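Narrative summary of target 7.
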Amino acid sequence: MMTLAILVLALASGCARDRADEDDGPEALYAEAQRALNNRQYDAAIDLYRRLTTRYPFGRHAEQAQLDMAYALHRARRPEAAITTLDRFIRTYPTHPNVDYAWYLKGLVHYDQAMGMLRRLFPGQIVDRDQESARRAFMDFQELTQRFPQSRYVADARQRMVFLRNVMAESEVVIGEYYFRRGAYVAAINRSRYVIENFPGAPANADALALMKRAFDRLELDELSADTRAVLEYNFGDLADDSEGRTGLGRLWPFN
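Modeled conformation, tokenized:
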């Protein structure tokens, strides 16, 4: 009989806790999630934000919880889930006061994915998926700067766009060098031309012109080689004779 009474009391206590949790309201649940986020307990924060948006799907706390959950997913190294959450937020709340942050965070998620490319780029290993992340990050930041030119995130986004442009241009030159080493000189020329046409101002333009000249030399197209060298000398001066082997991270980030 005593055992039954204890069991009843335990069940009643559990139900009371559940009801208390239900009655805490969105403010308390959001505050708990924020504490978990601030303590870098990202999985716990994600679970709490998800509970909040499920239990209280309307209101400012639910809206902000989606953004905060996307950030927690990003920090928890779950980029696909973070992007899905941000896309849903942008579609659902296109006029939200913090939608500019959603675009910025989306760019950051893709940017961090692209940074994995740098660890592979300079040894010569190119990964198409990482290049796609760089392109997507660039487009996200570009969307932010065009839609919300007064956003406080624009200055940082523009600097990252310059860096991404330089990285993408540099990687194209590395691919061109790969073709050159294997005797695919026309492919190397096409890669060089792509860099020059699509990434104006990137430091890799000097490397692209030098690569193009060397490919013309191998094809014995002397006139085109001379013209390319003239363009290289005109635009890059004393770099014309020192353009080989200049690829490196230091040239990609022009903000010292």
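The chain has a mean pLDDT of 83.
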